[in-house]
Amino acid sequence: MNDQTMSAPLLHPSAPSPASDGGTLKMTARNVNVFYGAKQAIRDVSIDVTQENVTAFIGPSGCGKSTFLRTLNRMNDTVSSARVEGRITLDGEDIYAPDMDVVQLRARVGMVFQKPNPFPKSIYENVAYGPRIHGLASARADMDQIVEKSLRRAGLWDEVKDRLNDSGTALSGGQQQRLCIARAIAVDPEVILMDEPCSALDPIATAKIEELIHELRGRYAIVIVTHNMQQAARVSQRTAFFHLGTLVEYGDTSEIFTNPRETRTKDYITGRYG
Amino acid sequence: MSILAILFLVLGLGFVAWFAARAKAAGFQPENGIRPHSRPGHHGWYVALWAIVPALIFLAVWANIAPGLTMAAAIESPAGAGLPSPGMERSAILSEVRGLADGRIQGGFYPKAQEMLPAYKAARMRYGIAGASLALILALAGGTYAFTRLRPDFRARTRVERVVMIGLLVASLIAILTTLGIVASLLVETMRFFSKVSPVEFLFGTSWSPQTAMRADQVGSSGAFGAIPLFWGTIFIGAIIAMVVAIPLGLMSAIYLTQYAAPAVRKWLKPILEVLAGVPTVVYGYFAALTVAPAVRSFAVMAGIPGASSESALAAGLVMGIMIIPFVSSMADDSIAAVPQAMRDGSLAMGATTSETIRKVLVPAALPGVVGGVLLAVSRAIGETMIVVMAAGLAANLTANPFASVTTVTTQIVQLLTGDQEFDSPKTLAAFALGLVLFIVTLLLNIVALRVVKKYREAYE
């Protein structure tokens, strides 16, 4: 196991700039608006994502938190009616610039979805999918190493090492989600976006994913959307509260949960609505 | 009285019964606070069904046995005494009696028929009246019986529901029984064929020349029924050439339509593609015979390929492939659309391009559905008749040269049955054996295809 094999033809090191509130700035969004056709889903959102912290997006259903998450790796491009305004940068680079290669961007900003979505292939092939596409391993042995390392990081290796050729869809829900995380980290991204990764899982599987998020923290900048406030409190250091497409409040998780500045945040956290 | 009049009478009785029962049921009051079990309409239907159904069943049976009874009575009568013994003449006389009585023929050939006519007419009248009265009595009795059973707590709704279920069951049984009937008739004729030609020769023989001698001294028509060249021709055209055309084109158009086409484009292109499936196959036949076949032949001649014929496997197969495209495309379209969006998103989020996503995720995930579609398309192609009749030719060649003329099972069935040989000659009977083979093969293909598709559907639900 060495980090060399997962190294970084895709890594774009650039001068880290300090964020205003501690931590190294990884991604920034400034005055972002998102429209679906004529309907505005996101209004004037500005936010910083730091390398060291897990950032949680919380808010009631339909508040735009998932939509905003999907602007960070341009997954909204797949929706033909979606339109994004404003500036979003990754290491200072505008990801909506005309010369930005979406394929490269998504290799750097990985994503884990709400419902586990392993491909109907073997466990091995699921993890090897990204590295193969991006040509990260030429020899079989290199690929084996990437697969093992990714599965280990996702905390799944011991459970599946004897059945790597079984179908990924045959695993339990929690295992499938960890497989999807392994698949995402196999291309060694810089940022991992998680869109309610535990909403389809039982409490034990959820606990495992949360534990995993703790372990991955620092190695990857992590942004997690969750409708579960306890989860946000448990896994994140920074929390952003969205409501009706606007960013109501963004700050340290401990602050948001104990001493919110806005009444709307307070009402949501104390369970008045949402 | 004609059957039709009785039918209307019975239906009229049912109509009256419906109103009467409904009116009676409408008067039911709640007993001890419990509402009547069924609504008045259910009671109405219950009584009406009792009035109509038994009478109709009786009429259906009666319509079949009454003519026989009538004729028997006429023969028993004194006028029928001098009839010739059973044989051609007797049948002719009896059928003339019937014709005269129905007014279908004027004046007859046999004096005996004229003699029997009054007795026959009298018997017919008797049985007609008997049948009509019985039907009406049944209708009245049924209606009355049902009517007396009506009570507020009578479960008319449940009964009516059961009758509806039985009605639907009968409707579906008719389709199934018809299929069984077709299979049975195929089987019987095939057995007759196999009593003249051995199954081994038929299934494994390589020489097909179905002309049999009509006279013993005729030459060159000994008759050979080895169907291998036909099977080969069918597979060559329907399962090989047509599929080489249809699978890639159908799959690619499905991929374009589901993954690349803008909704507006898809809205126009998909129906246009489906129009292909609505073109009558005989029109494809012209196209194959008049446009494609000559073009294929001139190409073969130009390229110096030996054995070029104006009727070629290639021409028929190409056009058949075009015809099949909508089948493959629409099945592939469905299966690709059934792959969850999450799968596609998962791949795109890994940084895969659209075409990588299609090749590595969508098509493999949709493959079982696509395979099912292809099998259905093959079964349709090998059963297809008009194109091959018009473009593939009649020569039973066992050749892999696509420019040569080959023949197919369906083409030969048409040839065998449109000949002028008597119906029990091996030549004609061979058509049934070929039909049975075709039926079995397409049935198996359909079963396998549907299983594959079903299994695949379960995977995502």
Automatic annotation (TrEMBL), chain A:
InterPro entries in alphabetical order: AAA+_ATPase, ABC_transporter-like_ATP-bd, ABC_transporter-like_CS, P-loop_NTPase, PstB-like
Biased composition (Low complexity): 7-20
SMART domains with a match to the protein in the record: AAA
Membrane topology summary: Peripheral membrane protein
Record field: transmembrane: none
A single Gene Ontology CC term: plasma membrane
Keyword list, A-Z: ATP-binding, Cell membrane, Hydrolase, Membrane, Nucleotide-binding, Phosphate transport, Translocase, Transport
A molecular function GO annotation: ATP hydrolysis activity
Domain ABC transporter: 27-269
Primary role: Part of the ABC transporter complex PstSACB involved in phosphate import. Responsible for energy coupling to the transport system.
Record NCBIfam families: 3a0107s01c2
Protein name per the record: Phosphate import ATP-binding protein PstB
Originating species: Edaphosphingomonas haloaromaticamans
Gene that specifies this protein: pstB
